[in-house]
Amino acid sequence: MQALQIVISGIAQGCIYGLIALGVVLIYKATETVSFAQGELMMLGAFIGLLLMTALGFPFWIAFAAAVVAMGAFGIALERLVIRPILGQPAFSIVMLTIGIGYVARGAITMLPGLGTETHTLAVPYKDQVWNAAGLVLNVEQMVIIAATLVLSAVLYAVFKHSKVGVAMQAASQNQLAAYYMGIPVKRLNGLVWGLAAVVAAVAGLLLAPITFVHANMGFIGLKAMPAAVVGGFGSLPGALVGGLIIGVVEAMAGFYLPEGFKDIAAYVVVLVMLVVKPNGLFGEKLRKKV
Amino acid sequence: MRYIFKTAYDQDIRLAKHGGHVFWYGVLMLVLVAAPWLFPEYWLAQLTFVLIYSVVGLGLMLLSGFTGLFSLGHAAFLGVGAYTQAALTHHGVPAPIALIAAGLFSAAAGVIVGLPALRVKGIYLAIATLAFGFIVEEVFARWERVTGGNAGIHLSAPDVFGFKLDNDVSFYFACLVVTVLATLAILNLLRSPTGRAFVAIRDSEVSAQSMGIHLARYKTLSFAISAALAGVGGALYAHKLQFISPDQFNILQSVDLVLMIVVGGIGSVHGAFLGAIFLITMPQVIALGKDVLPAAIGQAPGLQGLVYGLVLIAFVLFEPQGLYGRWLKLRTYLQIFPFYRRGMFQRQKSYLKSDRLK
To answer: I need a labelling partner for A189 at 20 to 30 A (CA). Which of A229, A273, B233, B304 fits?
Structure first.
């Protein structure tokens, strides 16, 4: 029973990693850019939600929706202003750029007077509730995370499978130039992908907020999403979620069964093992470069 | 405008290409040697830090700028060197021997990281080094018998075979000697076949391989040399601060190091030094700005991070060749005045250089 309990809380945490990793993979597939700012986007989403609820007095669900929309717009603007001018430059530059964006976001939030340096609680309606089911004590906050991740995954699946935009995104991610020749507005799609990634990050931030509180450094969790993306195989959307779940569960187990200290590095040990054993990840395709 | 008439093949690989090089680097060397008598004590200490970071930057530049391999965990090598130095000098080993050992230990760590690096590239490598950095930081914090854990560990003044370097001036000269040696070593390496092989790998792995370059061997070698320099830098860093703790070698330090070489100018030896100067003077400039700006902005705790981020973004967007690239443009402008054109350093715009296959 106890093991199951740990696995469930690991899955909830893993969903968060998975969602952040999902944003990373979305951006990677579309623009071959790896965004190290995804954790900070998540932090921004949580802060916008917090501000809307405390300063403007919005109820939670409206604040949630507003924060998600705001972050979507922010993502599109970010792509237009900062990312697009340097597309085509070496990957290293773009990684540094996203790290820079992360620094700016963290610095800007920390500079907010009386807000940035504190830890805040997000007053969600389902705070501190517990379900007892079949001997298990289920934390509602965790259940909401899992449920929301499932819903979001289903929505994304439907979008990518059946909507025109989604299919166009798939095409562009497979071969940008060919997609462009087919009349797909690749540049606009890249903007949309950044917006979508920011939306997913904002959802993750708002889901995580009740558990870890809202503070300027919550974005560092984004660094654990990188291992999740690698474990799943960098180019695979379901892989990102599965990778996140694996990392989350391993971390929860390590925190319980192994000596102190292993919990924090479990994700990194897993990713190193994965890189040595199967560098392409669980769902990654094996590709070979031809000259 | 200077024209160099080549009359011997040897001129192609000579370190000092012409009299101007000899003169200006000679002047620089004289200033550095005379620095303890020229600058006040505080600035001498900052200059020492610049030298230490330059050594680390040279290593990282070799790896990222000349071999084209990412590292987001370089602070770990810095830490391995620092803790090796601390442990060895604690047991009475003379500082120079400990310094060499620190370099070797770090190089060994570099080889270990280099092993998965042979199979992965690009972003995977960045994540592998990131993961390694986190694991090493945790080891520093938990292996209390050697590292003193989170409480940190103190170092005594370096002991060079009975001669104690216990004041700022003598330690400055020790750092200067190490930096000059490291710079000459890197310059020599880069004009040797090994260095050319590194650059070939950076430009195209497939072509390098077809030219008979053993990818695995050269990549591991690059990692080892880079880590060794970081280790030596770390050992000096530990002596300079006289106190080390695991949080000095965390991810933020790694990012600072990468920031240093990006701002300095990826792919140039000068860049490592310019970047180090930037990294050390930036906090001072920010501190100056704090007094000028209104209190709400100037005294806010996040200012430094914000400025770092903005500087990084600005460099990547507007000056990808860094400070050194900026200097090259300025120099060309002056040399060929008034014939400088805007597009002279424009790079060919490549259409999304892809790691993918199709």
So the answer is: A229
* Minimum CA–CA partner of A174 in chain B: B358
Contacts of A94 in chain B (CB under 8 A): 316
Task: Flag whether residue B357 sits within 8 Å of chain A, measured between CB atoms.
Answer: yes
Q: How far apart are CA B311 and CA B319, in angstroms?
A: 11
Residues 259-298, chain B, touching A (beta carbon < 8 A): 259, 262, 266, 296-297
Residues β-bridged to residue A139: A130
Nearest Cβ partner for A100 among B70, B304, B316: B316
Q: Which residues of B touch A227 (CB under 8 A)?
A: 127, 131
Q: Scan residues 134-193 of A and list those with Cβ closer than 8 Å to B.
A: 174-178
Give pLDDT tens digits along chain B (358 positions).
678 888 888 888 888 888 888 999 999 999 999 999 999 999 999 999 999 999 999 999 999 989 988 888 899 999 999 999 999 988 888 889 999 999 999 999 999 888 776 777 677 888 888 899 999 999 998 888 888 888 888 888 888 887 888 788 999 999 999 999 999 999 999 999 999 999 998 888 888 999 999 988 999 999 999 999 999 999 999 999 989 999 889 888 999 999 999 899 888 999 999 999 999 998 888 888 877 777 667 667 778 888 888 998 998 888 888 899 899 889 888 888 888 887 777 765 544 445 554 3
Burial call A270-284: b when 16+ CB within 10 Å, e when fewer: bbbebbeeebbbbbb
Q: Which residues of A touch B142 (CB under 8 A)?
A: 261
ipTM above 0.90, yes or no: no
The CATH-assigned architecture of domain A2-277 is Orthogonal Bundle (1.10)
A50's enclosing H/E stretch is: helix A38-54
